[in-house]
Design brief:
Blueprint lengths: L2 E4 L2 E7 L5 E5 L5 H21 L7 H11 L6 H15 L9 H7 L13 H20 L24 H10 L3 H13 L3 H5 L6 E2 L4 E4 L10 E4 L2 H10 L21 H10 L9 H12 L4 H8 L16 H4 L9 H14 L1
Antiparallel strand pairs: 1-2, 2-3, 4-5, 5-6
């Protein structure tokens, strides 16, 4: 029997003229409808064999491609979450029937839990996931092309940083010792939140003054070294006996999955530092480097940015490399100098 019922839904199990076995859900519980779907698939298989047509694939199959390809990727959990959002909308639909307009009309606009509006960047991530699934389908020759879906306009890159006296005041205002240490380490190394909270002692090389960020943790999936200055080394020594595995644990010696945002925000409010988030500690570290004369290419390597373009947002903080050219174009001084030279020649 090429049709069988499982969990209230009919599944088909047939072979193409070339011998390929096709097993999939019909998506229906009515046997008559399931039989119609079965016959349609068999006809498509015959058309593929005889008329060189493309087998109609479903959206669910494209999602499986996406998830199988992304199993070992760091953002796999995000892909799964997005797949759960898109499947109720397009599940069971033929890939060829999904248009860019349909995707645009179904992009999420509000948080499912608290109903708060989603930021354009978040909406664009949902867009990116479904387009990746369709792109994988195209590479497998399941669809002729990927539909166009315009991106949401995102605000310009935000660079928020504080001066050293403000940073010192902020650290003093943080009530939790472990959170204060995490923030201090971020300011000393420019490490990202995930890189800090997942850091283990076996990745610390005190002799060479580096901490290894593995490719599994690194944002761009490329391993790199965090340079540890004397203050960072002293901080690590103060935490050495707290836990044998993780460098940063909370007051109960439990592994930390995230920072205490309420404690962090209370400290920023106490110091009158507005619109400042944990990631801005990394911006602050980078800003201090540029102001101290660190070349942008060197900063790119220190901070683990993938391209120089990502670092150029800090370039305006130091113009020493341009100052030598400031007198190349003037209005009066060049004329005065020329007149003086003419007078000297005349004498």
């Amino acid at each position: 029997m090429s049709l069988s019922k499982r969990g209230g839904v009919y599944y088909l199990d047939i072979r193409s003229p070339s011998g390929e076995r096709i097993r999939r859900s019909t998506g229906v519980s009515d046997k008559k409808l399931a039989q119609e779907y079965h016959d349609k698939v068999k006809h498509e298989l015959w058309s593929i064999s005889r008329l060189d047509k493309r087998l109609e694939r479903t959206f669910d199959e494209a999602l499986l491609l996406l998830l199988n390809d992304g199993k070992d990727q760091k953002d796999y959990a995000t892909k799964v979450r997005h797949a759960k959002y898109w499947r109720p909308i397009f599940g069971g639909k033929p890939l060829s029937s999904i248009t860019g307009e349909m995707i645009c009309n179904n992009l999420p606009t509000h948080n499912a839990k608290n109903k708060a509006p989603l930021a354009p960047a978040t909406i664009n991530k949902y867009r990116k996931t479904i387009l990746r699934a369709l792109s994988s389908a195209q590479k497998n020759n399941w669809i002729a092309s990927v539909p166009y879906v315009g991106k949401q306009k995102e605000p310009k890159v935000r660079v928020r940083w504080v001066k050293k006296p403000q940073a010192q005041e902020l650290l003093k205002a943080i009530s939790l010792k472990w959170l204060k240490d995490v923030c201090l380490f971020a300011l000393l190394t420019g490490a990202r939140r995930t890189e800090i909270l997942t850091m283990t002692w076996d990745k610390i090389d005190s002799n060479n003054k580096i901490a290894i960020v593995s490719n599994v943790i690194a944002k761009n999936e490329k391993a790199r070294s965090l340079l540890l200055n004397d203050e960072a080394i002293a901080l690590l020594k103060s935490r050495r006996l707290i836990d044998k595995n993780y460098v940063f644990v909370n007051s109960k010696n439990n592994h930390i999955n995230d920072i205490d945002r309420r404690a962090f925000n209370r400290a920023t409010e106490k110091c009158n530092i507005d619109d400042f988030h944990f990631h801005d500690l990394r911006h602050t570290w980078a800003s201090w480097h540029v102001q101290s004369g660190t070349p942008l290419f060197t900063l790119k390597e220190l901070g683990g940015w993938e391209t120089l373009k990502m670092v150029k947002k800090y370039a305006h903080l130091n113009t020493d490399h341009l100052s030598q050219f400031s007198n190349a174009v003037t209005i009066w001084s060049q004329n005065i100098n020329k007149n003086n030279q003419d007078l000297n020649l005349a004498v």
